[in-house]
Amino acid sequence: MQEAFKSQAALAEKMSKVALEAAEKSTEVSTKWTKTTLAKVGDVSTIKEDPADYTKAMTDFASAQAEMAAEHVAAFAEIAKKVQMDTVELLMAAGKDMQEETAAAVKKATDTATKAAKTAGAK
After folding, report:
1. Which tens digits make up the pLDDT trace of 66-77?
2. Is 1 within the bounds of a domain?
3. What is this structure's pTM?
4. Which of 95, 86, 92, 70 is nearest to 21 (CA)?
5. Pair 32, 63: CB distance under 8 Å
6. 53: Cβ–Cβ under 8 A, 6 or more apart, which residues?
7. Whole-number mean pLDDT of the chain?
8. Containing domain of residue 62, as a range?
9. How many Å is the Cα radius of gyration of the chain?
10. Residue 2 included in any domain
């Protein structure tokens, strides 16, 4: 029973690390995206000589935003893919560990029962 608790606690710790790493990476992507957007907004908000320059600035901003969105969504997708792969790996390892623990417990129970039967039969 104590081994099962230790195994579950170890799995929970590893899963937490995966989640925290993903949160950290997602925050980095979001921060980068925000900083880039704010810099581009700064370009848009500067005084222009010709009214047509405002249209060009907004068009350039919209184009840059679309490009950045594609890049950042791809970055978020990579983070999600890594989380999925790490989670599957952890769960498969946990399943293997539980199988080994169960097999050891069954063997121990069988050995105990066999020993008890032999002792009872000898009396």
Report:
1. 999 999 999 999
2. no
3. 0.72
4. 86
5. no
6. none
7. 91
8. 10-117
9. 29
10. no
